[in-house]
Amino acid sequence: MGVKDKILEELKSGPRSLEDLVKATGAKEGIVKGQLTRLEKAGKIEKTGEGKYKLK
């Protein structure tokens, strides 16, 4: 399972911070940030007011 898939799996159980997603995926922060940006642009996730990420 790739980083993107791991992120989407994690977000199924609720909003997660960047730090949470880095721990859950085991990937470097820069990789996770890049995937989050791509997922956000694709309209699959959104950032909450608390700076967490969630599924749309």
Describe this structure as you would to a colleague.
There is one protein chain. The chain has 56 residues and is mainly α. The protein has one domain (3-55): Winged helix-like DNA-binding domain superfamily/Winged helix DNA-binding domain (Arc Repressor Mutant, subunit A, Orthogonal Bundle), CATH 1.10.10. 54% of the residues lie in helices and 11% in strands. The protein has three helices and two strands; from the N terminus they run αααββ. It has a two-stranded antiparallel ribbon. β1 and β2 (53-55) form a beta hairpin. The longest helix is centred in the middle third of the chain and has 13 residues, at 29-41. It is globular, with a radius of gyration of 10 Å. The N and C termini lie far apart (21 Å). The mean pLDDT is 97.
